[in-house]
Structure formats: structure tokens, C-alpha cells
């Protein structure tokens, strides 16, 4: 009997939710055949059978969230014929618990997974007791807390171990006021991805002593190069964006300063051999940061193509766990509207992230033939957030200055 366990679907993924069984007990499966769909905070994936045989047992139910390494099913590799016909993707789900499987459409089940709602505890208001999205949303609403005074947390001792602030309560003499429902208030429950993102951001700020440094980047030559070639790129179905130029300059700098393309180990700095550049892109359910593998090997054209591919697959929900694994540094471009600059939070376990600002025409001083002249150039502020445990000011400043100089020179092969 062969165990099928929850695999590690991405380096930072610790658990997954069973969204649909693609087989039933007694089905004959081939080696590599998809038997179950699993959703994580990164992407949805199908888990294949490790061997050919017959599905002997399904040990978890749809909508169950389980940890990596938990046995999901067992396959009898000694029985490859004579069993029931494979049930493909319309197969019946895993055996229900003692109570009857809740009646709900797939979209409602997805909503319940996102909001962390146990459908077994929801009373359906639809026809024949079917659970609706409204039922799920109502079940996800936290009960309104009574307007009571929160007891003051214990003040930190004068000596001894550090005590952490209490979320929603306070720290020491400070008390956060309790929430009292008011007219027009709207409580929006966090889905699983938002909860993980929130925890990641808090963890990163607590773990890494962030330093933010900002550089003014003259994009005069980059914008001229872009204007000269964007039409040709468009005919090839490619978008020649400023982000592509920044990513090329960034990866060149990462190769020049390997101490930034790194992570923190056990009392050591680990300089990573591959430059896998994480690029923040919009997805239907929020911002995601997949990465471009070996991004330092890409030309400007290759970078534009790779960024476009990531954006398209993110929009279509076709990113895979591999797209998120192994990121060594990240870049984010929040938008064009009034975003002068800002310090992004480092994506762990990286030690740095670059945040682009808006591009705006500004008065600059340029030197020609040894003389200074006033000119109007497109300028962008770029902010580098870095982990001061392993990156000192000299390294961080030199790294950002190099990126700015590469963009200022505009030495890119279109």
C-alpha cells in the first residue's frame, strides 16, 4: 500500500485545502494521473498518483485543510486491473464525515475556503437547505464584541524575557480601544490569503531591521529608447515597459553585488547562486509575487516577454507553485498616481526589495562639454528596503546607486 501525502507546494507553503477529489475509492489510476486538486495561498495544483494501482482509501474530505506530509489517500499498487472504471474529474468526493455532506455549489465552497468557514456548521437558507453565498458571508461575520473595557496587559518586567504586544489589546500601559459597531460600518472578513499576507508582513517587520534608502533616477535615455522601440515590440505582442528596463538593471546589479542576492542562515549570510527576481503583479484575488527564474540571463526583449507572461498567467489564475519558489530578490511597482516613493516591506526570506515610484518630469542639471545646463527630464524615485542584519549602508547605497547609473546611461540592447 502506497501513501499519497500532501506535497510541499512551494517553499513557504505549510498547508493546503482539498478542493476536489478527481477519483473515488476503487478507481484504477495510472502513475502520474491527477487524483486530487489542492489550493494553497500561492496557487491551485493537482497532485498526481505516485504509482499505478487502485485507490484503496481516501483519508481526507473536500474542504479539509491539512499540513504538508499528511497522508491524503492510499493506493494499492498490486491491483492495476479489475477494479472500477476511473472516475476522472467528475468522480464522487471523499467519504463524508458522520453527518451528510453540506449542499453547496462549487463557487460557494470556494467562498467558504477563502473565508475560513466550516460548511458543516452553516445552516443553508436556499432551496432544500442548500447553502448560499449569503449564508457563508453571514457565517464569516465575527460577532459584534460588547463595548467593554479591555483589561490592561501585564506591563513588561524590568528584566527578563521580552513580552510581545497583545493584538487588539495593547502593550504595557497602552490599551487599544475596543471596537463598537457604528452606523455604516462594514466588517470584511479576511480570506486565507489576506491572513497569510498579514502574518508575513508582521513577521518580516519583526524579523528584519528595515533600512530604506532612496535614489533619484534620471530616465531620459531609457524613455527615448522606449519611445523608439515600443511600436516594434507591440507588433510582437510585447509591452516595452519601464519595469522591464528596471528589472534588467536590477539583475545586473545583483550579479555585481551578490551580498544583496542573499538570505539569512543560522548565524550566516547565504549568497544565492541563482538570480530569481520576484515581480509583483495583479491577480483576480489580490497582489502576488511570482518570480522570473535566472532573470540575470534575460535580455531586454526576454525580460519584457517574461514579465508579460507572468502578468497574463496571474490574471488567468494559471500560476503554479514553482512560479513562487526560490525568489532571491523582489521589485514592486505600485502604480503611477501620486506615488512619489515609499519603503516596501521585505518579502522573507529575502534581504531586500526595490520599490519604484512615479515617473515625473523634473528640472535637472546635466553636464555637456564640461558645462552645466538646465534640462527637463523624466525622473523616478526608487526606494531600496534592505535587511540591516546582513547589508550595511555602504553595500546598500552602492547597490542602489549602480541601478540608478545603469538606468541613467540607458545602455540596453533593444
Give a structural overview.
This protein has seven helices and 20 strands. The chain is α+β, with helices and mostly antiparallel strands. It has a six-stranded mixed sheet with strand order 11-20-19-18-14-17. The protein has a four-stranded antiparallel sheet with strand order 1-8-6-3, with no helix packed on it. A hairpin with a 2-residue loop joins strand 19 (352-368) and strand 20 (371-387). Helix 1 runs parallel beside helix 2 (133-140), helix 5 crosses helix 6 and helix 5 (242-256) packs across helix 7 (393-409). It is globular and about 85 Å long.
How far the N terminus sits from the C terminus, by CA atoms, comes to: 57 Å
Total strands: 20
Q: Report the average pLDDT across residues.
A: 86
Give the DSSP E fraction (strand runs of 2 or more residues).
25-35%
Tell me the major beta sheet.
6 strands, mixed
- Weakly predicted, low-confidence segments: 85-98, 148-158
Structural class: alpha+beta
Radius of gyration: 26 Å
SSE sequence, one letter per element: EEEEEEEEHHEEHEHHEEEEEEHEEEH
Backbone shape: globular
* Count of DSSP H/I helices: 7
In which range does the helix fraction lie? 10-25%
> Strand arrangement, largest sheet?
11-20-19-18-14-17
Amino acid at each position: 500500500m502506497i501513501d499519497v501525502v500532501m506535497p510541499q507546494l512551494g517553499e513557504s507553503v505549510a498547508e493546503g485545502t482539498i478542493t476536489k477529489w478527481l477519483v473515488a475509492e476503487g478507481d484504477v489510476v495510472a502513475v502520474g494521473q491527477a487524483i486530487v486538486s489542492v489550493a494553497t495561498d500561492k496557487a491551485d495544483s493537482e497532485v498526481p498518483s505516485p504509482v499505478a494501482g487502485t485507490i484503496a482509501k481516501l483519508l481526507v474530505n473536500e474542504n479539509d485543510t491539512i499540513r504538508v506530509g499528511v497522508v491524503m489517500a492510499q493506493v494499492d499498487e498490486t491491483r492495476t486491473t479489475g477494479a472500477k472504471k476511473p472516475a476522472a474529474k467528475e468522480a464522487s468526493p471523499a467519504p463524508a464525515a458522520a453527518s451528510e455532506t453540506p449542499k453547496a455549489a462549487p463557487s460557494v465552497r470556494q467562498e467558504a475556503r477563502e473565508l475560513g468557514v466550516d460548511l458543516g456548521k452553516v445552516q443553508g437558507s436556499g432551496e432544500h437547505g442548500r447553502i448560499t453565498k449569503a449564508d457563508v458571508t453571514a457565517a464569516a461575520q465575527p460577532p459584534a464584541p460588547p463595548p467593554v473595557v479591555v483589561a490592561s496587559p501585564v506591563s513588561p518586567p524590568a528584566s527578563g524575557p521580552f513580552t510581545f504586544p497583545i493584538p487588539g489589546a495593547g502593550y504595557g500601559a497602552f490599551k487599544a480601544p475596543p471596537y463598537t459597531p457604528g452606523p455604516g460600518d462594514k466588517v470584511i472578513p479576511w480570506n486565507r490569503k489576506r491572513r497569510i499576507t498579514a502574518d508575513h508582513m508582521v513577521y518580516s517587520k519583526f524579523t528584519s531591521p528595515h533600512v530604506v534608502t532612496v535614489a533619484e533616477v534620471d530616465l531620459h535615455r531609457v524613455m527615448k529608447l522606449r519611445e523608439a522601440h515600443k511600436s516594434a515590440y507591440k507588433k510582437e505582442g510585447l509591452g516595452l515597459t519601464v519595469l522591464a528596463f528596471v528589472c534588467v538593471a536590477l539583475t545586473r546589479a545583483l550579479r555585481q553585488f551578490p551580498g544583496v542576492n542573499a538570505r539569512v542562515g543560522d548565524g550566516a549570510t547565504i549568497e544565492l547562486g541563482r538570480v530569481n527576481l520576484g515581480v509583483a503583479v495583479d491577480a483576480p484575488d489580490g497582489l502576488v509575487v511570482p518570480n522570473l527564474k535566472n532573470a540575470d540571463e534575460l535580455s531586454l526583449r526576454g525580460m519584457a516577454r517574461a514579465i508579460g507572461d507572468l502578468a497574463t498567467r496571474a490574471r488567468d489564475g494559471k500560476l503554479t507553485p514553482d512560479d513562487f519558489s526560490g525568489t532571491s530578490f523582489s521589485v514592486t511597482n505600485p502604480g503611477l498616481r501620486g506615488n512619489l516613493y515609499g519603503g516596501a516591506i521585505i518579502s522573507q526570506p529575502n534581504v531586500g526589495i526595490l520599490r519604484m515610484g512615479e515617473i515625473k518630469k523634473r528640472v535637472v542639471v546635466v553636464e555637456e562639454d564640461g558645462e552645466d545646463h538646465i534640462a527637463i527630464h523624466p525622473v523616478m524615485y526608487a526606494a531600496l528596503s534592505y535587511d540591516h542584519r546582513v547589508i550595511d549602508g555602504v553595500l546598500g547605497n552602492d547597490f542602489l546607486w549602480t541601478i540608478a547609473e545603469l538606468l541613467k546611461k540607458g545602455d540596453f540592447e533593444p
